Amino acid sequence: MDLSGIDFSFTAILATFLVLLDITIRVLAVIYVPRNRRPQTAMAWLLAIFFIPYVGILLFLIFGSRKLPKGRRDRQSEINQFIVESTEGMDQVKQDLPWPSWLAPVIELNRTLGAMPLVGGNSASLYSDYRESLAAMTTAVNEANNYVHVEFYILSLDSTTAPFFDALEAAHKRGVRVRVLLDHLASLRSPGYFTTTRRLKKMGVQWEVMLPLQPLKWKFQRPDLRNHRKLLVIDNKLAFTGSQNMVDSTYNKRVNKKRGLQWKDLMVRFEGPIVAGIHALFITDWYSETNELLVREASLTPPTATATDLDAQVVPSGPGFEGENNLRLFNSLLYAAQERVIITSPYFVPDDSMLYAITTAAQSGLDVQLFVSEVGDQALVYHAQRSYYEELLRAGVKIWLYPSPTVLHAKHFTIDDQVAVIGSSNMDMRSFSLNLEISVMVRGPEFIADMRELEEQYRNVSRELTLDEWLERPRRSKVLDNIARLTAAVQ
To answer: With contact defined as beta carbons under 8 Å apart, do 238 and 267 qualify?
Structure first.
């Protein structure tokens, strides 16, 4: 029996099916992919789908949506409404110092996007030394009486953080309510994850992983949507937040130790009414992971105002919100600046709107400075960041390179002598769109003076990158930088 005709027909049908499937994928991609996306992001995804259709569409289905599951978004809306109702009237602050005309709209923007009010009567202390900040947080836990709420992107038990874990255990034993949140994927990828979780279980404290990737438990979302916040709240009195994870400054990774890399961060200890705003983010994230709303803790009277009268406003951001709250805040402040903009960011990969805002400020004659690390720990991001240096330098931005082998991981910037923003947010598309972040906008002469002193410390050890030097870099570096830049828009 001759089967050649059947084989040919089957091959022809299969080929026709694959061609039709390919055309269908491309047509649907053109219709669906650009919806509610930046043009450059949509174009990057379309190119991936058109050049490698089957692989491209699979990647798009996994990574194409930056929204959290609907249940999480609904709980975020619930919490936002609760915050608005419970903080009505709290945004009345003293105006002993004249406000610049541009500040009130920025405050209203933050309130509209993130629900948090501007509150006065706060004090703040900076911790730019890695071990000193860990020691300060450990001391605070040891002095807790009612509750300790811990939330870190990476939480890892090692020889450096062991005293902090000991303090948590001691607090739990004396009757303090200890709750711990750690990002699932970030902590899982860190050495010692299972040692850490075994210790938490043995201590008997309440703990949960954030944004877990546990498909067998029906807990799954886009894998790279992560909770990048770092905060610690003690009783109703004080809070720490900033850029530092709860891990050794080498991150315990063999490659970091081999290269001699050490992380340098900034944490801020706050006291006063702003503590309630920082605590609201922990309550939100705890509710998202456990469905338990900490009513008792959420309804506590805001902390008493301090003698040092700083105004401060928490700005939460992430895929639980409709807009990119941190990016909108940053751009608003960049366009409001009249004299000076000083930015510190370990991963500086801006979108077009931020790049225009920064270069416009520099071209307008403002003193615009950017502190970045001379060395990078993530090759792709490092080269993508470098691809922006020429445009920044030509616009008049001063770029300071913090010396190797330190990774300057602090995340903050100052506008004129009026406002500073500190927190967990990088200036890249991941922090703008994919990560849950915390930023705190602070106004007060004492705090700005402290920030200026910190910036001067950076400047004293850094070297300024010149345009001439940059244009002479090896061709290989130019190629790597330009290729890496193409990845910035795929998110």
So the answer is: no
Of residues 378, 36, 315, 73, the one with CA closest to residue 211: 73
Q: How many CB atoms lie within 10 A of CB 246?
A: 25
pLDDT (tens digit per residue) in 203-212: 999 999 999 9
**Rounded Cα distance, 354 and 428, in Å:** 10
Please tell me what DSSP assigns to residue 214: B
The half-sphere exposure of 487 on its side-chain side, counting CA atoms within 13 A, is: 12
3-state secondary structure of 328: helix
User: Cis omega (within 30 of 0) on the bond before 346?
Assistant: no
Give the C-alpha separation, 413 to 427, whole Å: 10
Look-up: residue for tokens 């008049």? 396
Calpha distance 230→385 (Å, rounded): 23
Report whether pLDDT(304) > 50: yes
Q: 3-state DSSP helix/strand/coil percent for the chain, to nearest 5?
A: 50, 20, 30
Q: What are phi and psi of 417, to 5 degrees?
A: -110, 35
Give the C-alpha distances (Å, rounded to integers) separating 139 from 21, 83, 174, 179. Answer: 62, 30, 15, 17
Spatial distance between the Cα atoms of 466 and 400, rounded to a whole number of angstroms = 9
Planar angle of CA 306, 307, 310, nearest 5 degrees: 70
| β-sheet bridge partners, residue 400 | 371, 464
How many residues are there in the chain? Answer: 491
Count of alpha carbons within 13 Å of 157, Cβ hemisphere only? 18
Helices (H), 68-183: 70-86, 103-114, 130-142, 162-173
- CA 169 – CA 141 distance, rounded (Å): 10
Question: Using 50, 70 and 90 to split pLDDT, how confident is the model at 41?
Answer: confident
- Helix 162-173 vs helix 130-142: angle between axes, to the nearest 10 degrees? 10
What pLDDT, in 10s, does the model give residues 235-254?
A: 989 999 999 999 999 999 99
Look up tokens 């899982």; give the residue. 188
Measuring CA to CA, how many Å separate 322 from each of 23, 112, 113?
A: 33, 11, 8
pTM (predicted TM-score)? 0.88
Distances, alpha carbon 208 to alpha carbons 152, 183, 184, 205, in Å: 11, 9, 9, 10
Cα separations (Å) of 452 from 103, 263, 266, 457? 20, 21, 14, 9
- Residue whose structure tokens are 């005309």: 101
Closest CA to 451 of 314, 310, 334, 325: 310
